[in-house]
């Protein structure tokens, strides 16, 4: 496993930056292991919803995790506002770094992720190729 620690700067788009890193580094199967930092704008989509909620103000990233593939990112985040209220869900485009974001990405060599339509869920879901078989 190769790890890539990165730092994002003010005004960078969180999701676009991570997808850009995956593309630039030719990551076929990656995970965001953890992320901390701050956002000035958070675009968070809740489970079962079509549209993201836009939050503005000083927010701390409490957790950031997810998967990266050539098809894009699937990321989850929790943020706390200046009053300590916590909100979490899917990272949508438009999350903007306020001061910094410190993120650790791991690449899984010999593995390829893709997101393909799944008849059971009705969504594009993770497909893993090249991984050893799972143990029951």
From TrEMBL:
Domain PPC: residue ranges: 1-129
InterPro entries tied to this protein: PPC_dom (IPR005175)
A Pfam family the protein falls into: PCC
Protein name: PPC domain-containing protein
PROSITE patterns assigned to the protein according to its UniProt record, in alphabetical order: PPC
Transmembrane segments: none
